[in-house]
Structures are given as C-alpha cells and as structure tokens.
Design goal:
The complex is a heterodimer of chains A (about 230) and B (about 425). Chain A has about 230 residues and is mainly alpha-helical. Chain A has 8 helices and no strands. Chain B is about 55% helix and about 10% strand. Chain B starts with a helix and ends in a 5-residue tail after the last helix. In chain B, helix 3 links the parallel strand 1 and strand 2. The chains are: A mainly alpha (about 230), B alpha/beta (about 425).
Chain lengths: ~230, ~425
C-alpha cells in the first residue's frame, strides 16, 4: 500500500518534472516572444510614424476631413492613430504566437484565427478610410455646387450626404470584420429605406408645387445670370 | 520638333505652300459667323493697304464651329471698294483654314497658330478676337507694326475704363499681376495681343498646352510668361469691348480666373518671388481719354447673395484659411453692410493662394470658395464708391495696388512655409 502510494507520488513527480521540463522552455520562449514582440512593435510604430511624417500624411488627413473627425472624437491625430493600430496588430500577433507556443489546449488554433482576422481588419480600416475621404470630398463638392446653384439648405443637403456616405462606409467595414453582420445590414437597410421612402412621399405629396416652383426659379435665375459677368470683366 | 506634332498633315501642306512669311494674323474662331466677315475684311484691308511689303498670312484656327464660320472665311471675297487700297499688294495674300484637334479651347487654337508661325518663320504674330465688332484695318495694322519694327516682343491691349468698371480686373487680376510680376499691365486677361515669332516659339516649348487648366489660363499665362522671361512688353490702346467674349456667369468667370492666376503663379514662382520694382510699359495707339460710363449692375443683390453664400461655406473657409484671417473675414461679412477693407481683401487673396499651394483643398473647390468672397468685395467697393467722382475711385484703385505690393512679402513667406 505504502509502496503503491510512493510509486504514485514518484510517478506523479516524474510526470510533473517531465511536463515542467517541457513547459519551462516553452514559457521562456513565450516570454521572449512576448517581450521581443513588444520591442519590435515599438520599433515598427516609430518607423510608421516617421514614414507618415515624411509623406506629409497629416496634410492628406487634413484635406480629407479625417483630422477634424478625429479631433471631434477626442482621438489622437491620424498618423499617431495609425502607428498605434499597427503597434497593436504587431504586438497582438506576437502575443498570440507566444500563447500558441505554450500549447495550451483551450488556445489551440488561435494563431490561425488571428492571422485570418488581421487582413479582414486591415481591409475594414481601408474601407473606412476611403469612406471618410469620399464623404468629405462629396460633402465639400456638394456644398459648393449647391451654393453655386443657389439651392436652399445647401449645408443640410451636403451634410446629409456626408452622413450617408460615412454610414455606408461604417456598415461595409463592420461587414468586413464580420461583426454582427446581419443586424448591422438589416438596421442599415431599414433606416436607409425608411428615410428614402419618407423623402419620396414627402416630396411627391407635399413638395410637388414647391419643387416645381424651385426648378422654375432656378431656370429663370440661370437665364438671368447668363451674362452677369459682363460688368466685372 | 513641336511644330510638326501640333499641325495636321493637311495644314502642314498648306503652310509649306505658303512658305516663309513676315506677319501672321491668327483668328481663334468658334461659331463667329455673325462677326467673322467684318474681321476678315479688316485683316484683308490691313494686309493689302498697310503691309504691302510684308509677306502676310491669315490663319483661322477653328475649334469646330457649327455655324459655317470656316466656310464664310474660305468663301469671303472682297471688292476693290472693300480694300480701299492705296497700292497693290506685292505679295500673294494667303488665307489658311486650320481646324484644330486635341483639347478643345482657345489654348489649342493658339498653339496651332504659334506652331504655324514657327513653321513659316513669321516675325510677328497677331491674334485678333474674331468676335470683336470694333476690329478695323487700322487697329489690325497698329497691333502689328510695333512688332515688325522690332520695338517690342509682346503687345497687350489696354482699355480706357471707368474705374468702377471691370471689377474683376481692377480688384484682383491687375493689382496682383502688378505686385507679383512687377509689371504695370492694365489688362492681363485681354483676348487680343501680338507677339514676336521668337516669343511664339518660346511658348511652344512650354508644357502649359497639355494642361486642362490652360483652357482658362492661357491669356494670363502668355502675359505673365512674357514678363517672367523678360520679353520686351508694351501696351496698345484699344476701344473697350462692348460685351465680353463669353456668356459665362460671374461665378464661372471668377472660378476660371482663380485657376488662371494659380497656373501662372506656379509656372513662374522663381520669378515673382524675387520681382520687385514695378516697371511701366510703353504704350502705342490712341488713348480714348474719356472712359465710357460703367455698365450698371445690382451690387446690393450681389452683396446679399455673397453674404448668404459665405455663411453657407463658412466651415470650408475655416478649414482652408488661417484662423485669424477667417475670424476677421466673418466679422466683416456678418456686419451691417458690405465691407472688406483693402488690407483684409489682399490678405484674403494671398491666403487663398497659399492655401491652394499647400493643397488644403482641391483647386476647383478653392476656386469655388473664392467666388463669394470676390462678390462681397466687389459689392463693398461699389457701395463705398457710390457717390465718389472717378478720380477718387481711381485713387482708391491705385492705393489697392500699393497694398498688394506692400503685402507681397506675406505671400512670398507663406508660399513655402504653410502659414499665412
């Protein structure tokens, strides 16, 4: 009996020792990957920030209106934000690798999942950026065109278009990362559809005469304006 | 060679048949059936009566007229009475029709004329407005003679205006060109001019022709290029055109002028940054002395429109203008009546130029944003000078030129440092 207990203890110790011998190098490797990854991510962040500064990225973000949006959202400037995102992607990659090195059963396959997610995340960020760029360009162009055409509520019209384009960009980005795809798409479709239907009904029923007189006024004003540059040249 | 790539085979054959010439008169035509015969007749009489010893060619560079303009030119015949000639021409009179290809616009027509002048080794090139109702043989001749005598290499028209007339010229283009290019050019946007064959060949080597903006910018660019490259320049008195050449709206014209100015500033940056003392230009022709009354227009309505528009685009202006400047402009716009003093106007113009240079918004958008500010300034100036005699208004215009000149260092400093 005592012998059996002793054997069991010995066996248990041997198992622990062999597991420990196997685990410690993994732990050391994981620790090295973890901290090494942190250092590499820091270096990458610095490099990205310098590259963006060299490319005058802040000017691009200013022109696109992204700077203003980030400022309103109390977020850091776009170059800092991008550098931070890259830092976290790189470091998370190393963290996931470190965890995978430990070969813990619950975390098996984490690396594959992570590396499947990263491209989708990057594409989503890209889509979002393009959405912001387009939204601001269209906002500016619509506002100026509306003012030039003498349309009433030019700012409302251009602002609505800007929000719409940003909303489309956000929905596309969320769909890309696979976040509550169905819910987001359904919500967007319902909102957008309702908005358009409401506008169509309002315009068709309530604003027919107003639209007619507006168009007539525009055409008349255009005719009157046709040679209004004469005294200025 | 630039010439050969610009001219079509058919035109090349026509020009080879012409051979060398001394004077080329170019007509950049586009649907000018109403006036073209009178203009062609004036050119014809000028050739046969005044330039008999010179080899002359008239070339019509047509942009695709649909009203039969080329046919009218081709079939035009003139009687002896039309010619009013004192002596018979010693040379053959050539008339070349050159439908041009490529980007539509006056710049392509001018490029064709310049290329034809280079090929025929013309010593003088005169470009006449084919819509000009006041074109007479005398005016064609006097545009050419200073060139053939070698007295000048670029001759621009100048008009006797009422100082309250031509606000876009007097409030923006003239003082800006005077301050930046240091040349006292009265009409930087005129459609007629004459130049030496050497200047035409020089221009052909530049890359302006292929740019989309050249469509609006070419008239201003030619004048500023002559100034920047130090070609001897002069001005010639012409009667004030009774109506503008285009039927463009004020917004379109201001938009085009802004693009033209920026195109020139970018082309000649190294020159205007260092140009200082303004040089007066020699004048030819006869000064009408008495300026016609300005065309009346409703500047009260323009002011209201400008106020509304500036209010609408305020968020865009805030993005592109220096914060201090934006606040001052908005204070003026939200005040009781239209007001924008000289210094603030000049700082606004320079601020826009800098913002465009630094890419704070697309050039087209910036040009659109500038329109209501010009409208506001024009209305403000008209109201301020409503009861003033022409001499007092002219003094104000001279003072404005001085402010543009005085504040030029602000633009020079900010052009490359992203600050106004």
């Amino acid at each position: 009996m005592i012998q059996e207990i002793a054997d069991a203890l010995v066996q248990s110790w041997r198992n622990f020792a062999s597991a420990f011998v196997l685990f410690v190098p993994r732990l050391v490797a994981a620790t090295i990957i973890f901290f090494g990854g942190f250092v590499i991510a820091l270096i990458v962040r610095r490099a990205i920030q310098r590259a963006l500064a060299w490319m005058n990225f802040d000017r691009l973000t200013l022109r696109s209106g992204a700077s203003e949006m980030l400022r309103m959202a109390e977020m850091p400037p776009a170059d800092v934000l991008i550098a931070k995102i890259v830092f976290w992607i790189v470091w998370l990659g190393f963290i996931v690798s470190a965890v995978d090195t430990l070969q813990l059963a619950p975390f098996q396959g984490l690396v594959e999942e992570f590396f499947r997610f990263v491209p989708r995340f990057l594409v989503a960020l890209f889509v979002l950026s393009i959405g912001f760029l387009m939204a601001n360009f269209l906002w500016r162009a619509t506002l100026l065109a509306s003012v030039n055409a003498g349309l009433p509520a030019a700012r409302l019209l251009s602002g609505a278009l800007r929000v719409l384009v940003i909303a489309v960009g956000v929905v596309m980005a969320l769909e890309q990362v696979g976040l509550a795809t169905g819910v987001v798409l359904a919500a967007f479709a319902i909102t957008f559809g309702a908005l358009m239907l409401g506008l169509a009904i309002a315009f068709g029923l309530g604003g027919r005469e107003a639209a007619k007189s507006l168009i007539e006024e525009q055409l008349r004003a255009k005719r009157e304006r046709e040679s209004d540059a004469a005294p200025h040249l | 060679m630039e010439t050969e790539s610009t001219l079509s085979d058919a035109l090349l054959r026509q020009l080879i048949a012409v051979g060398q010439c001394d004077v080329m008169v170019g007509l950049p035509t586009l649907n000018n059936a109403a006036t073209i015969l009178d203009v062609v007749r004036a050119v014809h009489i000028s050739f046969t009566r005044d330039l008999t010893r010179l080899r002359t060619v008239m070339i019509s560079s047509d942009g695709g007229s649909t009203d039969g303009t080329p046919d009218l030119i081709r079939n035009a015949t003139f009687t002896d009475a039309d010619r009013v000639q004192t002596s018979h021409p010693l040379r053959t009179l050539h008339r070349v029709l050159a439908p041009y290809h490529g980007l539509p616009g006056k710049h392509t027509a001018l490029r064709t004329i310049f290329a034809a002048a280079e090929l025929t080794q013309a010593k003088a090139v005169a470009v006449i407005d084919p819509a000009g109702p006041s074109t007479t043989p005398e005016r064609v001749t006097e545009l050419i003679l200073p060139l053939t005598r070698g007295e000048v290499e670029f001759l621009a028209p100048r008009y006797r205006r009422h100082p309250r007339d031509g606000m876009l010229i007097t409030q923006l283009v003239r003082p800006l060109v005077r301050a930046l290019y240091a040349v006292a050019l009265d009409e930087p946007l005129g459609s007629e001019f004459s130049c030496s064959g050497r200047f035409a060949s020089h221009c052909l080597e530049k890359e302006i022709w292929s740019r989309e903006s050249a469509r609006f910018a070419i008239d201003l660019w030619l004048r500023t290029e002559a100034a920047a490259e130090r070609f001897p320049m002069g001005q010639i008195w012409r009667p004030l055109p009774s109506s503008p050449a285009s039927r463009a709206t004020l917004r379109e014209v201001v938009h085009q002028v802004v693009i033209a100015i920026i195109e020139s500033l970018r082309s000649h940056e190294s020159f205007w940054r260092n140009a200082n003392a303004v040089s007066e230009l020699r004048s030819w022709g006869t000064d009408a002395v008495a300026a016609p009354d300005p065309q009346p227009w409703d500047y009260h309505a323009l002011a209201e429109q400008a106020r509304r528009d500036i209010g609408e685009i305020a968020p865009l202006l805030e993005d592109v203008l220096d914060p201090g400047l934006f606040v001052r402009v908005m204070e003026n716009v939200t005040g009781a009546g239209p007001c924008l003093d000289d210094e603030l106007w000049v700082r606004t113009v320079y601020g826009f130029a800098t913002a465009i240079q630094h890419g704070r918004a697309a050039l087209e958008h910036m040009a659109d944003m500038f329109v209501p500010l010009y409208m506001w300034r024009a209305a403000a100036f008209m109201m301020e000078t409503e009861t003033e005699p022409p001499e007092a208004v002219q003094a104000r215009l001279d003072a404005l030129c001085d402010v543009f000149q005085r504040l030029k260092p602000v633009l020079v400093a900010s052009w490359s440092t992203n600050q106004v």
